[in-house]
């Protein structure tokens, strides 16, 4: 059985610590893209489960973009 295990994704994080607003936006985009790529890869490879330990989202208020990724 194939599984993917990841942890503490923190989609939709403000990324405000030590980053400029531009770099924070860039990092958020990279994170969403990487997560989408992981889900796509799992589907293509016949992965039975993706196990996410820790937090998938950073806050209770999640953007529609982050909610619909994958």
How would you describe what is shown here?
Helices cover 40% and strands 14% of the residues. With 70 residues, it is an alpha+beta fold. It has one domain. It has a two-stranded parallel sheet with strand order 1-2. It starts with a strand and ends with a helix. The relative contact order is 0.32. The mean pLDDT is 91.
Secondary structure: elements and pairs:
Blueprint: E1 3-7, H1 21-44, E2 49-53, H2 64-67
Parallel strand pairs: 1-2
InterPro entries: Calcineurin-like_PHP (IPR004843), DNA_Repair-Maintenance_Comp (IPR050535), Metallo-depent_PP-like (IPR029052)
Pfam family, one: Metallophos
Protein name: Ser/Thr protein phosphatase family protein
Please provide a brief summary of the model:
The protein is of the alpha+beta class and 70 residues long.
Sheet of most strands: 2 strands, parallel
3D shape: elongated
What is the average of the pLDDT values? 91
Return the structural class: alpha+beta
Q: What does the radius of gyration come to?
A: 13 Å
Proportion of residues in helical segments = 40-55%
Beta-strand percent range:
5-15%
Describe the strand arrangement of the main beta sheet, using strand numbers: 1-2
Question: Count of helical segments?
Answer: 2
Distance between the termini: 21 Å
Poorly predicted sequence stretches spanning 5 or more consecutive residues = none
As for the number of domains, it is 1
Organism: human gut metagenome
Protein name: Ser/Thr protein phosphatase family protein
Domain Calcineurin-like phosphoesterase: 1-64
InterPro entries: Calcineurin-like_PHP, DNA_Repair-Maintenance_Comp, Metallo-depent_PP-like
């Amino acid at each position: 059985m194939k599984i993917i295990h990841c942890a503490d994704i923190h989609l939709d994080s403000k990324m405000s610590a030590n980053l400029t607003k531009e770099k924070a936006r860039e990092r958020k985009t990279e994170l969403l893209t990487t997560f989408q790529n992981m889900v796509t890869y799992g589907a293509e490879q016949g992965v039975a489960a993706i196990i996410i330990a820790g937090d998938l989202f950073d806050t209770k208020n999640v953007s529609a973009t982050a909610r619909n990724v994958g």
